[in-house]
Amino acid sequence: MKPGDHPDFYRFAPPPGTSRESTIRLDADGKFWHDGERVDHPALEKALHSWIALHPDDGRFMLTNGYDWTYFQVDDAPYTVRALRVAPEGVTLVLSDESEEPLAPETLHVGAKDALYAKVKGGRFAARFSRHAQTALAPILHEDKPGALRLTVGGREYPVG
After folding, report:
1. Which of 74, 92, 120 is the last residue of a domain?
2. CA pair distance 85, 94, nearest whole angstrom
3. How far apart (Å, rounded) are the C-alpha atoms in residues 20 and 139?
4. Rounded to an integer, what distance in angstroms lies between the CA atom of residue 139 and that of residue 90?
5. How much is the pTM?
6. Which of 43, 81, 136, 141 has the most neighbouring CB atoms within 10 Å?
7. What is the dihedral sign for C-alpha 48, 125, 150, 152?
8. What is the SS3 assignment for 27?
């Protein structure tokens, strides 16, 4: 059993002389930074992406590995859609934590700088499409008139908010 399995784990005080606040930041491109320096170690970056969670009491973003946790700053969306697979029956998203899940087409919307976003992880989190992933949607994303997009998936059309 990990300490994180205890029902009050996220309510325990931090170790003496430490804080639950950190200088870790996730930028809009899905890159982690610590103390102003880019986290470029592949294994650490992979781990950080897999540790993203919401604090159960205050809803703030945190990183947790089940043994410890800390708050961190998210500049845009906590997840990035890095790639996708388009099939006749649906779209599968490949997220920054290396998980895969089906796109919920009704959650797709346009945000800042014309970036596409969707809800992921059961609708609890937002994911920003990378340029590569957004371009991969081109065969099923249509513009009826300027600013009016629709997505065609599984024989159905969904307006893009």
Report:
1. 74
2. 8
3. 45
4. 13
5. 0.92
6. 81
7. positive
8. coil
Length of the chain: 161
3-state secondary structure 104-150: CHHHCEECHHHCEEEEECCCCEEEEECHHHHHHCHHHEEEEECCEEE
Do 19 and 34 lie in one domain? The reply is yes
Task: Please indicate, yes or no, if residue 134 is contained in any of the structural domains.
Answer: yes
Instruction: Confirm whether 47 is domain-assigned.
Output: yes
82-121 pLDDT, tens digit each:
999 999 889 999 999 999 999 999 999 999 888 999 999 9
The identity of residue 26, as a single letter, is: L
Which residue, of 74, 94, 120, is where some domain finishes? 74
In a 3-state reduction of DSSP, which class is residue 75? Answer: coil
pLDDT tens-digit series, residues 57-91: 999 999 999 999 999 999 999 999 999 999 988 99
Same structural domain, 85 and 58: no
